[in-house]
Amino acid sequence: MLTIVIFLPLAVAAALPAVPRRAVPWTWIAVTLAETALAAWMWAAHGTGAGISYETDVRWIPSVRAGYHVGVDGLSLPLITLTAVLFAACAVYSLRQTHRVRAFAMLFLFLEAVCLGLFAALDLLLFFVFFDLSIVGMYFVILLWGHGDRSRSALKFFLYTFLGSLVLLLGFIGLYLGADPHTFDMVDLTRSPPLHGGLAGLTLLAVGIGLGIKTPVVPFHTWLPPAHTDAPAAGSAILAGVMLKMGTYGLVRIAMPMLPDAWRRYALVFLIAGLVGVLYGALVALAQDDVKRLVAYTSVNHMGYIVLALGAAGYASGDAGARRLAVTGAVTQMVSHGLVTGALFLLCGVLHDRAGSYDLRRFGGIARGAPVFAGLIAVAAFASLGLPGLSGFIAEFQIFAGTIGSGTAAAAVTGALAVLGILITAALFLRVLHRAVLGPPGELTGRVTDVRRPELAALVPLLLLSLLIGVAPRGLLDTIEPLSAAVVALVGR
């Protein structure tokens, strides 16, 4: 079943050249909706238990003990479902796409397959293959369908993230060589951590840099704003909503359980990196007049919360319950950020589609002519800043409670300082609402018409899911919590 979920989009992409042009968008939508249904069915069948479901382990490169090993658990299931939902939303949103529709759909189906494969991979070499292929796919999305200085942005994105993948590969080779017998299998490496002492620290440095560039962690974030600004709306939604999670997912899946000794020793580094990301991302976003760059920098801010929480979970001397809460909050934040920021980038796309600009100074009073659009952007903004009743609040509350309550002074201080990030985020989103949505009319306001049906059909489910998690989070949290307890136990060995 899991293999079908991973490779069905790829199979359909290969068949799309034979599909009549008018049927291409509907075929794309049908496949993504089927993927969403299959992911939801797997989640329901897995339930809230611990352990791995839908596992397949087939030898791939026997000489290095690398295999096609895939499976899902409480960490990968929410992210696989998020991936399916976001790709379905992008397919519906792109229904009015007119430029190279067939190639656009094929590339997004390819990207969906590699993203799903990465979140299901239980072999380091397989993880790396999917990781690298995602970079190639997004490079072509920005280069061929972007706007502005798209060639430069695509090249910067590729070079930065490809360099990160090479450093990550060095870390994976270190884990492989440290294992006895040598293996790339994640389950075996988690069961018996292969490295300790200085070698473990060097390997964590390589893995941390490789995944940190993808996350992105400050100061490895500079590829992100231009890539988002010049990417098409659907590309930005996938880049922020799905591909940034590959970095933080790798920290939870690989770095923490496979290098527990090094993670404990350098937990303070991750705490500080997370705090810097939270405050720097929020402050720089506050200074932006380009709404898409603003949303891009809020991603730096939100991913900083995740790194902060994972750093707090590294203190083995801290309260175990609080550390579990921090990990649960980090995974919840991955899901929440994907839904909310994906919706924000699609809303930015609506603005650019109508007016050809992201400049906040040229808009004002949008609510008068486009009330539904104004309402959607208000809900997405409040979800992003963590308003109670929406998913952002559930995630951030757990992160702060787990970080501050972990029982260590460093975690408590950094967690308390990170609360300032919420205040700054509130200020920047209220500034957007006051200036663009409720302010006096701007020179481009007259061009902004309300959302069309495909746009509405793409946006509403994302925000409804954020509302559902905010009001009734138990279904998500019950799935994540066994995984959080396992990760905290592995780090504390």
UniProtKB/TrEMBL annotation:
<feature type="transmembrane region" description="Helical">
    <location>
        <begin position="101"/>
        <end position="119"/>
    </location>
</feature>
<feature type="transmembrane region" description="Helical">
    <location>
        <begin position="330"/>
        <end position="351"/>
    </location>
</feature>
<dbReference type="GO" id="GO:0015990">
    <property type="term" value="P:electron transport coupled proton transport"/>
</dbReference>
<feature type="transmembrane region" description="Helical">
    <location>
        <begin position="75"/>
        <end position="94"/>
    </location>
</feature>
<dbReference type="GO" id="GO:0012505">
    <property type="term" value="C:endomembrane system"/>
</dbReference>
<dbReference type="InterPro" id="IPR001750">
    <property type="entry name" value="ND/Mrp_TM"/>
</dbReference>
<comment type="similarity">
    <text>Belongs to the complex I subunit 4 family.</text>
</comment>
<feature type="transmembrane region" description="Helical">
    <location>
        <begin position="294"/>
        <end position="318"/>
    </location>
</feature>
<feature type="transmembrane region" description="Helical">
    <location>
        <begin position="157"/>
        <end position="179"/>
    </location>
</feature>
<dbReference type="InterPro" id="IPR010227">
    <property type="entry name" value="NADH_Q_OxRdtase_chainM/4"/>
</dbReference>
<feature type="transmembrane region" description="Helical">
    <location>
        <begin position="407"/>
        <end position="430"/>
    </location>
</feature>
<dbReference type="InterPro" id="IPR003918">
    <property type="entry name" value="NADH_UbQ_OxRdtase"/>
</dbReference>
<feature type="domain" description="NADH:quinone oxidoreductase/Mrp antiporter transmembrane">
    <location>
        <begin position="121"/>
        <end position="417"/>
    </location>
</feature>
<keyword id="KW-1133">Transmembrane helix</keyword>
<dbReference type="GO" id="GO:0003954">
    <property type="term" value="F:NADH dehydrogenase activity"/>
</dbReference>
<keyword id="KW-0560">Oxidoreductase</keyword>
<dbReference type="GO" id="GO:0016020">
    <property type="term" value="C:membrane"/>
</dbReference>
<keyword id="KW-0472">Membrane</keyword>
<feature type="transmembrane region" description="Helical">
    <location>
        <begin position="125"/>
        <end position="145"/>
    </location>
</feature>
<protein>
    <submittedName>
        <fullName>NADH-quinone oxidoreductase subunit M</fullName>
        <ecNumber>1.6.5.-</ecNumber>
    </submittedName>
</protein>
<feature type="transmembrane region" description="Helical">
    <location>
        <begin position="199"/>
        <end position="221"/>
    </location>
</feature>
<dbReference type="Pfam" id="PF00361">
    <property type="entry name" value="Proton_antipo_M"/>
</dbReference>
<keyword id="KW-0812">Transmembrane</keyword>
<dbReference type="GO" id="GO:0048039">
    <property type="term" value="F:ubiquinone binding"/>
</dbReference>
<dbReference type="GO" id="GO:0042773">
    <property type="term" value="P:ATP synthesis coupled electron transport"/>
</dbReference>
<feature type="transmembrane region" description="Helical">
    <location>
        <begin position="233"/>
        <end position="254"/>
    </location>
</feature>
<feature type="transmembrane region" description="Helical">
    <location>
        <begin position="456"/>
        <end position="476"/>
    </location>
</feature>
<feature type="transmembrane region" description="Helical">
    <location>
        <begin position="372"/>
        <end position="395"/>
    </location>
</feature>
<feature type="transmembrane region" description="Helical">
    <location>
        <begin position="266"/>
        <end position="287"/>
    </location>
</feature>
<dbReference type="GO" id="GO:0008137">
    <property type="term" value="F:NADH dehydrogenase (ubiquinone) activity"/>
</dbReference>
